[in-house]
Structures
1.
Amino acid sequence: MNGDPAANPVTDGRLRIVVIGGGTAGWMTAAGLVGLLPAACTVHLVESEEIGIVGVGEATLPHLRLYLERLGIDEAAFMAATDATYKLGIEFRDFGRIGDRYIHPFGTYGRPLADVAFHHYWLRRHAEGGATGPVGDYSAGVVAAEARRFERPGTDAGDPTTSFGYAYQFDATRFAPFLRRWAKARGARRTEGRVVGVERDAADGTVTAVTLADGTRIAGDLFVDCSGFRSLLLGQEMAEPWEDWSHWLPCDRAIAVPSISPQAATEPFTRATASEAGWRWRIPLRHRVGNGHVYASAFCDDARATELLLAGLDGAPLADPRFLRFRAGRRRRSFVGNVVAVGLASGFLEPLESTSIYLVQAAITALVEHFPDTRVTDADRDGFNAAIDAEYDRIRDFLILHYHATTRDDSPFWNHVRTMTVPDSLADKMALWRATGQVAQYRHGLFLEPSWVAVYLGQGIVPQGWDPRADLPDGAGLDRALAGLSRAIAGRVARMPTHDAALAAIAAGAGA
C-alpha cells in the first residue's frame, strides 16, 4: 500500500488498520483486531462525537458470547457495564394470525432418534392425534423463557434438558464505550474528528489516507468503514452499488423510545408484536425497557406509527421517540480495493431477529480469516465477500418468512407481504418443508434447522409429510417418550432460579 509512513508510522511490519466510525461496529472491530491479531496489525479508530450512533439495537444472538469469550472479556463485567439481562429467544405475537404467539428459542427441540430429527416424530404424532403437547414443550429454552427462569446450560449437548443457548439484552449506548476502554488498553488508538477528505492511489484506486476537519491526516494500509448508513468509504468514495431488497422487506422506518420497567418479573426474551404495518419490539433491561416500532411508510405514516408504539407501552416513556429511516439491502460487495465495510456501511436488515450485531461479528470473523499478509489480494476480497453474501442472503430469506408465512388479511400491508413473490431460494425452502418436513441444510451461516422449525410451525405452516423413518416406532411408546421428555424439561426448569435472581447473582459477582 502507499500510505505516508510519516503520517502514521509503523516500523515493525504490521499492517496499519484505520477504522472509520465508532459505535458498536467500530469498537467491536477494533477490539476484535487488537485482541485476535496483535502481531499482525495496528488499529487506529477515527470517530466523531458530534455524529453519534444509531444505538437502538439492544438484543443479540448467542454468537456474541463467543465473541466475548474469544477476547477473554468477563461476562459479569460486560453485563454490569451494559445493564444486561439474559435472553433465551424471541417471542412472536400476531404474526401468523392475530392471537397467535410462539417463541423462537436458542436451542433444539427434543433429541434426534436413529438420525431423524425430533420434529419429524412430533409431526407424525401430531397428525395422528397422539398425546403431543405444543412443540415448545420439548424445548428447554422455550419452557424456561415462559417460566421467567434462567441458568447457564449444561455441557452435555445430547441432553435435551440442557440443549439451549442464551444471549443478552443490553443498553447499546453503553456497549461501545465498554469496548473502547478494553481496546484502548490493548493498544488501539483513537482520534476524535470528522472525515472530510479521502486520498486514493492514482494507479490502483486504493485508499491511502483520510483527512479530518481539523487538518489531521491519517494514513493506513487497510481501511474499515464503520460509518453507518453513510457508508463514507465503500458507498460514497468507492461507489459500490446498493442491492435493494425493499420489495421483499418493505419496512423502512423505526421509532424507538425507552420506558420505565414494570414491577413484574423480568422476561428472559425479546418480544416482537406484529402491528398493522410492521411490528413493535420490547426488550427488558435491568434499568428500563427498550421499545420500538418498525413499519413500512408506504402503509403507515409517522403519526399513526407513533400512536401505536406509545399505546403499547407497559410503563411511562423515559424520553421522546427517536425516528430512524433505512432501506433493506446490502452493497453488492463489502470488500473493495483496500476498503472493508462492517455493519450498516455494508448493509441493513431490520432487527426482527436481532441480527445486526451478529452481522458485525460475522464480518470481523471473515476479516480475521481472510486477513492480508502484506498486501490485499483478490483471494482476500473474494473469500470475505462470499462469506458475507451468504450471511446476508440467508438472513434475508429467514426474515421474509416471518412476513410471508401469514394468513393475516386485515390490512393492506399484510395482504402485500402474504401475496408477494419471494426469492427463489426461500420459495424452494418452503416447498421442501411443506412436502416433507425437511429443512434445507447449509454448512455455514445463521439460523439452522431448529430456527426454521420454530417459525414454520409457529406461523402455522404444518407440512404434509415427514421423514418416513419416523413411522417406525410404536405410536403409544412414542407418546410415552414424548411425555417423559416434557416432564424432564419441566422438572429441570422448575429447579432453575428465576431470571431476576440470576441477574442479581451476576451483578453481585461483578461488584455492581
Note: The chain is about 35% helix and 20% strand.
2.
Amino acid sequence: MTARHVLAIDQGTTSSRAIIFDHGGTIVSVGQLEHEQLLPRAGWVEHDPAEIWRNVREAVAQALSRAELNALDIAAVGITNQRETAVVWDRHTGVPVYNAIVWQDTRTDRICAELAGEAGADRYKDRVGLPLATYFSGPKVRWILDNVPGARERAAAGDLLFGNTDSWVLWNMTGGVEGGVHVTDVTNASRTMLMDLRTLDWDESIATEMGIPLAMLPAIRSSSEVYGVGREHGMLTGVPIAGILGDQQAATFGQACFEPGMAKNTYGTGNFMLANTGTAPVRSENGLLTTVCYQLGEQPAVYALEGSIAVTGSLVQWLRDNLGIISSAAEVEALAATVADNGGAYFVPAFSGLFAPYWRSDARGALVGLTRFVNKGHIARAALEATAFQTREVLDAMNTDSGVALTELKVDGGMVANEALMQFQADILGVDVVRPRVAETTALGAAYAAGIAVGFWDGEQDVVDNWAEDRRWSPRMADAERERTYRLWKKAVTRTFDWVDADVT
C-alpha cells in the first residue's frame, strides 16, 4: 500500500474537523471550521446541515493542503460525529427539510411523555438500552414529521431520508443525489431509540409507535468496513470511506479500551464516560445507558455502559458568550485560579435538563450558595468544578452497576488541557486521572476503524501499541474534604428539580 495516511472527519457539536494521521497515530495536519449554534427558542438547539457539509469539505481541503497531500496519499477515511443530532433530507434534491435538531435540544419532551404513557420512561429500555428522553434521535424525527408541512406525506412516499450527522456526511461524500450511500453504523444506530441492541437491526414496532417509516432509516453496518468511496468534486475521489463511530465510542476506541472494565471520559461540549462491558449488553440499574461500543466487520459487537452529561465545556462557552466574564474559553482556568476555592458557590448547569444518572428533563440550571463574597473568579471555579462533580456522579453509578471499582480514568477532549480541572477531577474521584499523548482520541478512533478495515493497521493491537501516557494526576484532597464538597454538590443538584411545569418551557 503506497498511501501512508488516514483521514478522519470529526463532525462535532460546535465544529467540523478533518485530521490526518500517520501509521503511528500521530497528527500530521488539521483543518477545522466552527458552525453556527441556532437557538430559536428556549430549549431549542439547531444546526444548519448545509453549513455543516460545506465546512466538512473545506476542513478536508485545509488538512490536505496544509500537509501537501492529495487523495492518493490517503488510505481510508473514517467519520465520527455528534451522535443524536437528527437530520432529515430529501433523497431527490439533497435539501434538508428542516435544520438538524441537536442532541441538547429539549423540544421533544412532550413527545417522550406521550410515548412513555403508563409504562414510563423505561418503556423501550430492555430492547434499546435507553430511557425515553429528549436526548435521542427518534423523537426528534417524529417532531420534524409532525411539524414540517408536508414532511409526513413525503416520508410515507419514500422521498425523505433520516440520519445522524454521520449518515448526512457519508451520503454527500459518496455522491449525494447521484447514488449517495445511506448507511449508519451500529454505534450511531444505538442512539436513535429505534435499534434492538441484541439483533442490531431496526425495531419495526418502535418505529411504528413513533410514526417513523422504516424507509427513512439508513442501513445499519459495522463500525469498520468499506461503505463506499469518495465521489465529491475530486477531493477524495476513489478513497474508501471505511469507518464510522459515534464520537464517544470513537474516543473509547482511540483510548484502546478493548477489555471489559476499561473506561474513558471525554470532556467536550458535554462529558461522556464509557466503560467496555464485553460482547453482551449490560442493563443499568443506576441511570446509565446501555449502548454499542464498536463492531469490527463481522466480529461480534462490543457493548458499553455510558454516563452522558449534557453540559460541561458548553458551560465555559456560556460564561464567554452569555455572561461575557471571559473573552476566550482558555481564560477560564486563569480566572478560576484567582480564588482559593469556590467560595461556597455551586453551579449545576441543567440547561438541557439533567442527563445521567438522573434523567430529569424538568430540571434547569441553578447557581446556589451565593453570598456577597462570591465574585466572577468563584463563578468560574464553580463552573469548572461542575464538570468534575458530574463526572463523580457518573463514576459512582458505573462502579455500582459493574460491581468493580474503577482504579484510574483515561481522559480526553478539549478540557483535558486545563490542568487545574484535571487535578480537581482526580481529587473529587479519589483515583488517578490519565491523559494520553494524543488527546484527539475521537478522530483517532475513527481513523483506526477505517484503517483497520483496509489493512492499514492490523487490528486492536496496533491501537494498543500506539497509545502512550502523557500526564497523570493523583488525588491530593483529604477524604473528609472530598466528601464534604460532594455532599454540598448533591444538595445543589436537588435545587434544579421540578422547575419545568406544563406552562413553562
Note: Residues 9 and 66 are 16 Å apart (CA to CA).
3.
Amino acid sequence: MQKNKTMMIGTIPKLPAQYAAWIMPLLLSGLMSATISMFNLWKNLGMIDGFFSKWFSIWLFS
C-alpha cells in the first residue's frame, strides 16, 4: 500500500520541513533583493529601453 504524498501544486511535492529552515529564507532574500533593485533602477532611470535586461544584470551584481 502506497503512502499518499502531500503535493503543493499538481505533481510538485511540498517542501520537507527539515529543509524549510534554509530554503525559505534563501527564496525570500532573493525576492527582496530583486524587488529593491528593480525599484531603485526604476526610481533612478525610469522605464528605459532594455529595462528588464538591465535590471536583471544589476540584480545579479547585487
Note: Strands lie at 7-9, 12-13.
4.
Amino acid sequence: MTLVSALPSDPLAPVSGGKAITLQFNDNTLLPLLLGDHDRHLARIEQALGVRLSCRGNRVAIAGDSGRVDVAQGMLQGLWRRLERGESVGRPEIEAAIKLADAEVDPRLPLSDMPAIRTRRGAVGPRSPGQFTYMEALAAHEMVFGVGPAGTGKTYLAVAQAVAMLQAGKVDRIVLSRPAVEAGERLGFLPGDMKDKVDPYLRPLYDALHDMMPGDQVTRRITSGEIEVAPLAFMRGRTLAHCYAILDEAQNTTAAQMKMFLTRMGEGTRMVVTGDLTQIDLPSGTRSGLRDALDTVEGVQGIGVVRFTARDVVRHPMVARIVEAYEQRAAAEGDTRREARRAGEMFGP
C-alpha cells in the first residue's frame, strides 16, 4: 500500500483549508474486503467521519477537513494491515475502528497495533474506548473491576484474558463464578441435579469459553479441573492460588459475599469482577456487594477500576440506544427527586 498525493484534476481535490490524499492498495484480492459489498464500508466511514471517499481501480481518495482526513487514512491503513495478516474486516471491525477513531485513545497507536488478547482461536482486540482501557487494566493489574451496561464486553474480554494466560502457562486454572440470583424469574424448581439447576445461571460463561477454544478442549479442561465454572456459594472457605478468577454479575452479590470472594485471592492469582449497577436483582433494601466494594477498595494499590458507558456497547447499535434511553430516564428521575428534597427542606413539613 502506498500514498499518492492528490492531483489538481482529482475530483476530490481539497477545498480551501482542507486536504486530499489518495491511497493505493497493491492487492486486488483484498481490496473488495476493505471496501465491503457495494462499497458499504467506505460509505459508513464517510458518514461517520464527515469526509469524502471515492474508489477508482486500486486507489481510494480521501478529502475533507485535514484532521478528519488523517483519521480516515489511519483507519483504512489499520484495517488493511488486518487483512494482510489474514484477519477479518466486517461491520463489527468497521464500527470498532470508528469508535476508537472518535475517542481520545493514544493517537500515536494505529488501529492494527492496538493491544490484543491472543488466544489459540485468534486475537481479540478492543472495539471501543472503554475496551481499550479495560484490556490495558487486565494486563497491568492483579485485580480489576469492570463496571457498566450490558453488551460492553466486560465478561467476554475477561474470559479471553483468562484463556490466553492459561494457554500461555501463566496460570494453572480458570475459575468462573456468578451469584445464583434470579432476574425476576424462579429457576429453583427446575428438575435435575445440582448441576442442572445452576447451569442456567452460568451459561453466559460457558458461551464465552466456547468462543475462545474448541468445544472438546473446553470439555476436557473442565473434566480435568483446569476450568471450573461454579456458583459463588461454592467459593466459601477456599483459597484460589495460581488461577484466573472471574466473578460475573457481581451487582447481585451481597456485601458479605463480595468480601468473601475478594479474600479468596491466593499467590499467583488474578481476579476480575464484572457487573452492571443498573441491573440489580437483590431484594429491596439489600445493598449491592459490587457498589459496597467500589466504595471500599477503589484506589487501593494494585486494583484497577474501569467504568464503561453506552458508547462502549458493541452489540447491535440498537442496544446502545436502549442503554442511553434508560440512562437519560434515570438521570431525569434523579433530578426530580433532588428537586423534591430541596423543596421539602425549604418549606418544611
Note: The first helix runs from residue 31 to 35.
